[in-house]
């Protein structure tokens, strides 16, 4: 009886681990991103304390992104170190808000976004058939780009006051940089927030190019992987 319970626990643990390490975690991460970045703010979450909501939301996404690397020792180790440092700096800056700590926090956030993007892409481009879960993971990376560029704009706005023009009487907040980042990433560009200094314009152009090139390269890569997979499958079937 004890042996049976032990076997059940071991099988259950293995099933949970296998599920999390499978492509399903890409879909879960995308749902989490959409929930934190779009759905919850639209119904009023974070309205009273945007900084707290932003830090909590970013922390949850960061931890989830690091967990996706579980099972790949070196990738997980790098992601855990970068993620851990980012969390410590971010929450230190929250409790002791100084300009230097705020800048350091934004810089660490950019680094963390790059690492988590790599973790997700490593899952997306693994060998095997291309599924809808991989496509969802690729979309999650696209949304992560918007978060990373938003932190870069925040850094520039602090280091170079006046680098962006905003509507009269308004001051750009964290949520505004997220908004500006996504309209730039998608090349919509409404023009209410405008980069006017060279460094700001360079970042905006860089994000616009990133958004377009990423989609073009991604589609080409996924199509090529799908073709190769089915060719290899046809070859194996014909050899039997």
Label the structural class.
mainly alpha
- The radius of gyration over CA amounts to 21 Å
Work out the oligomeric state of the chains in this entry: single chain
| Unreliable parts | 14-20
Name the strands of the widest sheet in spatial order: 1-2
The count of DSSP E runs of length 2 or more, i.e. the number of strands, is: 2
Q: Give helix and strand order, one letter per element, not per position.
A: HHHHHHEHEH
The major sheet is characterized as: 2 strands, antiparallel
Taken as a percent bin, the fraction of beta residues is under 5%
Count of separate DSSP helical elements: 8
Q: Distance N terminus to C terminus?
A: 44 Å
Helix content: over 70%
Explain what this protein looks like in three dimensions.
By secondary structure, the protein is mainly alpha-helical. It has a domain at 26-152 and 211-239. The protein contains 8 helices and 2 strands, in the order ααααααβαβα. It has helices at residues 2-21, 24-42, 50-68, 73-95, 99-124, 132-159, 174-185, 198-239, and strands at residues 164-165, 194-195. The chain has a two-stranded antiparallel sheet with strand order 1-2. Helix 3 (50-68) packs antiparallel against helix 4 (73-95), helix 3 (50-68) runs parallel beside helix 5 (99-124) and helix 6 (132-159) crosses helix 7. It is globular, with a radius of gyration of 21 Å. The termini are far apart. Residues 14-20 have low confidence and may be disordered.
């Amino acid at each position: 009886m004890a042996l049976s319970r032990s076997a059940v626990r071991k099988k259950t643990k293995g099933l949970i681990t296998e599920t999390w390490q499978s492509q399903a975690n890409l879909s879960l991460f995308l749902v989490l991103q959409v929930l934190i970045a779009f759905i919850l703010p639209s119904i009023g979450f974070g309205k009273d304390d945007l900084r707290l909501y932003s830090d909590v939301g970013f922390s949850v996404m960061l931890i989830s992104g690091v967990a996706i690397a579980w099972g790949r020792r070196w990738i997980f180790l790098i992601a855990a170190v970068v993620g851990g440092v980012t969390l410590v700096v971010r929450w230190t800056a929250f409790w002791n808000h100084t300009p230097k700590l705020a800048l350091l926090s934004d810089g660490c956030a950019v680094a963390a976004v790059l690492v988590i993007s790599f973790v997700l892409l490593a899952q997306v481009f693994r060998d095997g058939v291309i599924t809808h879960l991989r496509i969802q993971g690729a979309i999650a990376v696209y949304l992560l780009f918007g978060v990373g560029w938003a932190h870069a704009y925040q850094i520039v706005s602090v280091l170079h006051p006046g680098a962006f023009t905003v509507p009269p009487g308004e001051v750009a907040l964290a949520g505004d940089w997220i908004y500006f980042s996504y309209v730039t990433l998608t090349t919509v560009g409404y023009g209410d927030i405008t980069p006017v200094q060279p460094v700001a314009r360079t970042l905006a152009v860089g994000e616009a190019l990133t958004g377009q090139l990423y989609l073009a390269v991604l589609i080409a890569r996924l199509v090529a992987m799908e073709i190769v997979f089915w060719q290899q499958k046809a070859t194996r079937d014909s050899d039997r």
